[in-house]
């Protein structure tokens, strides 16, 4: 049974501070040799650059899904701690939207766990993006490429 | 009683985020709820013709997943976070 | 011909500030969607925990090797900017020793480039570690596992 | 003139970090320098019996790599940074 404290997962409207998160992941030194972080930014609108985003989610489910993804990562790789922050509400082009951090004794495990978590978050966590322009609003379609990126992990398990 | 939730594009289409549905003894799986909602006609029929996902008590499930009185059943489009 | 400014690579005795590096990598928004960072820490002494490290390097060669690794990464993945910091001199258990950061439009490219850079740094950049204890000094041996980790990238290229 | 550099364990073993070597017309590759240094006997022979790398003008090369007057030739053990 893996112990998972819920403060590893935060859903918030305000921006986050990567420095602070990195500092927390450093606390596990000297039992760790590696910290890997991923920060996702708002980019690539299908409309024009005056577009903004609105993010909504299914809050009770989000926490369960993200906790489950972290558990899966911990079962696969010897990571000591991990952290997920996801923003909701209104976001502008270029803003930070999501953070994933993981630490581990070995670097390849920290890389794998961090990428696994963001790949599964993208395809399983119940967030939805809406683009807002002066002409109206439209929901963003799910990307086939994200589904395929997740598939890699299953192939990896079968061939590993 | 069942708690039915709709999110994102699906909520906009059916014009409702949450409703309570009286439990009926013939309900066996999520399929029965989809059938019942589809029978309401538009906008439900159109909304449910898209590729949608369903979660029972916050876990994504197949449509033949068993349901019981008191469950929370959510319908939503493929996720687009991160 | 790739343009590479040397301030992407820093070799220094003092500690580095990950917050500041992350802030620099954010500057390329909104042309990027992802920032991946790796921080390596001093751990795993073969002696006891009172050991400290001393790092030396072959300075003129170090810069050439790291610049070449960054160029290779840029040829393989569409990364916009990358950053390498490596410390030399005396280091204690738990201290930050190396930083690699990369940003890119897409997350899988940022992950790959960042991991590629640290894997090649480990096996090609002319740094050497010495462990210092109260009983004396001893040079750290190169790890077979690091060589194997680098090999993965060649297999990846052939099978990809 | 050749500039010869030694690093890390190798430098400790030969007790020298840098030396200048007179260019000789028969020098063709790094191998010729290794042979010459080995002929000095100990501690060179012992130091060069380990797995060592060589760089010419800051690039790691095979021992049959051609050299010319003025080159900087470095000898060192496998790297252990990061």
Under CATH, the homologous superfamily of chain A reads: Molybdopterin biosynthesis MoaE subunit
Mean pLDDT of chain A: 91
Low-confidence stretches of chain B: none
Q: Any idea how many domains of chain A?
A: 1
Q: Stretches of chain A where pLDDT falls below 50 for ≥5 residues?
A: none
Kindly report the greatest chain-chain contact and the residue count on each side.
A-C, 35 and 35 residues
Going across the biggest sheet of chain A, name each strand in turn.
1-4-6-2
Q: How much helix is in the residues of chain B? A: 25-40%
DSSP helical segment count of chain B: 3
Structural class of chain A: alpha+beta
Structural class estimated from helices and strands of chain B: alpha+beta
Helix content of chain A: 25-40%
Give the CATH topology of chain B.
Ubiquitin-like (UB roll)
In CATH terms, what is the architecture of chain B? Answer: Roll
The proportion of residues in beta strands of chain B is 25-35%
Give the C-alpha Rg of chain A. 16 Å
Strand arrangement, major sheet of chain B: 2-1-5-3-4
The assigned CATH architecture of chain A is Alpha-Beta Complex
**How can the largest sheet of chain B be summarized?**
5 strands, mixed
Oligomer: heterotetramer
Biggest sheet details of chain A: 4 strands, mixed
């Amino acid at each position: 049974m893996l112990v998972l404290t819920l403060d590893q997962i935060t859903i918030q409207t305000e921006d986050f501070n990567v420095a602070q998160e990195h500092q927390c992941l450093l606390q596990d030194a000297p039992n760790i040799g590696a910290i890997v972080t991923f920060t996702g930014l708002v980019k690539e609108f299908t409309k024009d650059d005056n577009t903004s985003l609105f993010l909504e989610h299914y809050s009770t489910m989000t926490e369960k899904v993200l906790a489950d993804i972290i558990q899966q990562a911990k079962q696969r790789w010897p990571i000591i701690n991990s952290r997920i922050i996801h923003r909701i509400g209104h976001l502008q082009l270029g803003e930070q939207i999501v953070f994933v951090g993981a630490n581990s004794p070995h670097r390849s495990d920290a890389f794998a766990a961090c990428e696994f978590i963001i790949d599964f978050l993208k395809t399983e966590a119940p967030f939805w993006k809406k683009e807002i322009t002066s002409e109206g609003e439209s929901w963003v379609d799910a990307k086939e490429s994200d589904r395929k990126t997740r598939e890699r992990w299953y192939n990896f398990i079968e061939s590993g | 009683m069942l708690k039915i939730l709709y999110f994102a594009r699906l909520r906009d289409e059916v014009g409702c985020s949450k409703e309570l549905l009286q439990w009926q003894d013939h309900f066996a799986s999520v399929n029965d709820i989809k059938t019942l909602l589809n029978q309401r006609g538009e906008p439900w029929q159109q909304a449910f013709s898209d590729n949608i996902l369903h979660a029972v008590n916050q876990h994504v499930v197949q449509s033949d997943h068993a349901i019981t009185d008191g469950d929370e059943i959510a319908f939503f489009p493929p996720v687009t976070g991160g």
